[in-house]
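Subject: two folds for Thursday's group meeting

Dear M.,

Sorry for the delay on this. The cluster queue was jammed most of the week, so I only got both jobs back this morning. I'm pasting them in the order they finished. Each block is the input sequence followed by the predicted structure tokens. Could you check whether the formatting survives your parser before we put anything on slides? The first protein is the one we discussed after the seminar.
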Amino acid sequence: MSAISVGQAAVLGVVEGVTEFLPVSSTGHLKITEGLMHIPVDDQSVVGFSAVIQVGAIAAVLVYFFKDIKRIVSAWFRGLTHKEERYHHDYKFAWWVIYATIPIVLVGLAAKPLIDGPLASLWVVAGSLIVGSGVMWCADQMGRHKRGEDDTSFKDAMLVGCSQILALLFPGFSRSGATMSTALILDLDRVAATRLSFFLGIPALTGAGIYELKDALGAGVGAAPLAVGTIVSFVVAYASIAWLLKFVAKHSFNAFVLYRIVIGLAVFGLLATGTINA
């Protein structure tokens, strides 16, 4: 019997699609939802399922930013064979994304037992939601929002890329929240910070999904729930991306900060009363 039903997979696909790119922690929300549905959050197949359906959200990024990605990838290939193309920002940016992904891959492989075990606890999720809120609020206040996407540098990409490790180790901190906050501290404007977060998430999340696929299929989640969860997350994530880019162009991150605090406190309350298991 599958550890996750098709109906549960659809619900989790919606949660993944809505929260993957919002700075509210998709991993945290998935674990909270799994807890409410009495799905064991530390089960290996469940952890694998959560990583695999992220691929649906990443596919939404690939479709939404297809023209940008095509331009960047084309510049990278041209630069491999034509020296004059290597001064183009898109060529350099492609390499920056590759370099910035290496730290999270190394940490992810080295710390996998902790990530799938003790750090998967909902106590960690609740605490990370609240702590991450403070970081996000400070970053939004500190940042001068004066630099656009064309002003990004290798240093920016590496620092923002490395910040993904926080979300990897502390589910609830939010990969989007960590990357956007770091970009804001580096004085990027909110739209540039959000777009950089999207691009840096593509290789990391795609790699995680492919790596976990064998565990999800081999340890108790059937192909049907995986397919449903991934497709639903794609559709919902596409709409979420479009909404977020419009929102950050005119608003601060304060609404997300407040939301994270409320959810974190609510999870602490549910855990303390035994309504959900850690």
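Second protein, same layout:
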Amino acid sequence: MHRRQALASAGAVALCCGMLAAPRAAARSRGLDTELLDEAVARASALPRLHTLQVARDGAELVAHAFRGPGLDRITNVKSVSKSVISALAGVAIERGILESVNQPIVSVLGDVPAAADSRVETITVDHLLSMRAGLERTSGRNYGPWVNSPNWVNYALSRPFVDRPGGRMLYSTGSYHLLSALLTEASGRSTLALARDWIGEPLGIDIPPWTMDPQGIYLGGNNMALTPRALLRFGELYRRGGMWESRRVLPASWIDASWSPRTRSPFTGHSYGYGWFLASARGHRVFYAWGFGGQIIYVVPDLALTVVMTSDHTSPAGRSGYLRDLHALFNAIVQAAERGISG
């Protein structure tokens, strides 16, 4: 079944249109309906590829299950959830003046483009990379292997032929986020790892170990970061709380608004996409989710004060097998439990 059809048939996450401002205090409920929650946890435990499930309501962790796999406090490959982290770093870099704005041409930082690159590369902006609308041929999917086996990942990504104009349709490509990692490295004079540890890890109190680097020593943007499930929950909570953590401003509230504003639409799910986050809805509630290969997902539902994290076996695809549909259906059940929770 096609991914979009699978999601629709599950009734779990519907297409979200429109824009959401930074999270605001809305109707808050503390707790989850016990009967519905028990049913959701039983459903989760029966999914053989699901490793962990966490549910936080209004900042309180109410569900924390490790069904199998490395557990809640051991690192796991979060795959493309990495893109949401890179997006957060871009927001901080802009706030600190390290990058000018989302409208900054990337060549103003990267310098001369490869001789093999199309001259239209000069019109690609930070916004185009964040929303994966660079127009360049994708480096994901079947093109991922040739890209990561090339001697220079930045030059390879920039030298891909244009299959759309910059600012056109969404072309899901990890290469776009690797170019962001290169921009951050060049503009700051520090590695993406150092920035992630300083700007995200230290304020949230989470460890960020080294991950894959390209042949030039640039950390891979958009894939293969290793974080614990509990770290993912804190990252999701950071966004739900409008960029604040323990009275400390970590991310600009305006960046969360920008990241959760629709820029394009995914050809795989039909959902809108902002800056590193997908935009959807569940049972009439706006949902923002970070998604990684195999079923690594952070869901945030601001009006229910709800953050849900799921980690899975990262070696098998989730979409075509129907597993992604199963995860969305499980999430939908948790949303229903939150709706019926006891009011605080």
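Two things I noticed about the second structure. The chain has twelve helices and 13 strands. Residues 86-188 form a domain with the Methane Monooxygenase Hydroxylase; Chain G, domain 1 fold (CATH 1.20.58).

Cheers,
T.
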